Amino acid sequence: MNGDDVIDGNPLDYRTYIGLARTYLQKNEFDKARTYLEKSLPHAPDNSYKNYSYRMIGHVNECASDYHSAVSALKSATKVSPNSYVAFYDLARCSAKIELKENCLSALDTAISGNNIYFYLAESADFEPLSLETKELLREIKSNTLNTAKSELAELTQILEDLDKRVVNEDIYVETVDEIESNLNLANDKISTGDYKAFLDALFINRENYKLVEKAKIEIDETIKTRDKALAGISKAEKMLSSAEESMTETKEALSGCVNAKGILDPDYKNIKTAKPKLELAKDRASRKDYEAFSDTIKIGKEAYDLAYNAKSSLDSKCEHYKNTRSAKVEKATKVFFKSAGSEILVGLVCSPIGGCVGWTISKHFWSSSAITVILVTIAGIVEGIMYAVKKLNTYE
């Protein structure tokens, strides 16, 4: 069965034509192989398959030393698949054979720009009679790549210095800045090798560093903003805690003599006691100087502030309440005092003059015993009233 019989069985299948072409290539029947490769083109599912067919046609023509036809087929391959760098490399080789210098160098440059493996293949390949021209192109490509890498590296180094200055001046830490520095050191190491692939690696690292620079700028701004908010929160919490402690002192004074003072103040004391270590923890977090630490500081500082605020609000309310209570108790005790001691004072006030007069009548030089008795009764009444009032003042139930 010949090739046409096979085609008649499946005339629309691209794989059938390619299979026949390979069979004839194995038999070194290049003309027949070329025929079926050309016939496969209308049946190619997409341009990648057409690219393969054109490249195979180019190889067949190259093997037949028909370089002009090979160049024509390989140009078609690059047109249907502009990213087929192997087709550009094959086009460069075949163009060199017939001294198509512009074709050769342009195709080789494109192939190398797409895949650096072709740089190394070109170093050892036979590009005669354009060997000198291709070697010069390789030197130029390598030199341009090195210069570009060095130029970018110098620019990035300056950018890094500026970022470092800002970080130091603001007294913060941004990990991305360290990452940029590490990448710059790696790029420098790559450049020092003198290898083309290493130069390309350096370029890639530089491209990544440019992205990191933009990221670092944003992170620095965010870290500064978060730090300022965190430090403001600490200051606010410190003031509130100090105010809460002052309220505690004032409320203790208001509760002086109250038998249940400890139980009344205990919840507020616990809040203050809890707020203090939280405030210290917030300060410790802030000392780490990075964004995450400042974010933690804001949260912890807010917790310390809330505890201190709750304590102060509660204490102020209690202080006001017990001050008012004491005033009411004083007023009540005063009434009790006068009610309890008033009669004794009145009797004393009435009897004292009378007793004095009687005593004066009996003796011009001595007080009478009745006058002394009246005075003593009066004093006793006053003392009893005062003691009763004091007792009531010291009782809050």
List keywords for this structure.
397 residues; mainly alpha; Serine Threonine Protein Phosphatase 5, Tetratricopeptide repeat; rod-shaped
How would you characterize this protein structure?
The chain is mainly α. Among the domains are: 3-132, Alpha Horseshoe (Serine Threonine Protein Phosphatase 5, Tetratricopeptide repeat); 145-219, no CATH class. The chain has 14 helices and no strands. It has helices at 3-9, 14-26, 30-40, 47-63, 67-80, 85-97, 101-114, 117-124, 131-170, 175-192, 196-254, 261-286, 291-362, 369-393. Helix 6 (85-97) runs antiparallel to helix 7 (101-114), helix 9 runs parallel beside helix 11 and helix 13 (291-362) runs antiparallel to helix 14. The longest helix has 72 residues, at 291-362. The radius of gyration is 51 Å and the shape is rod-shaped.
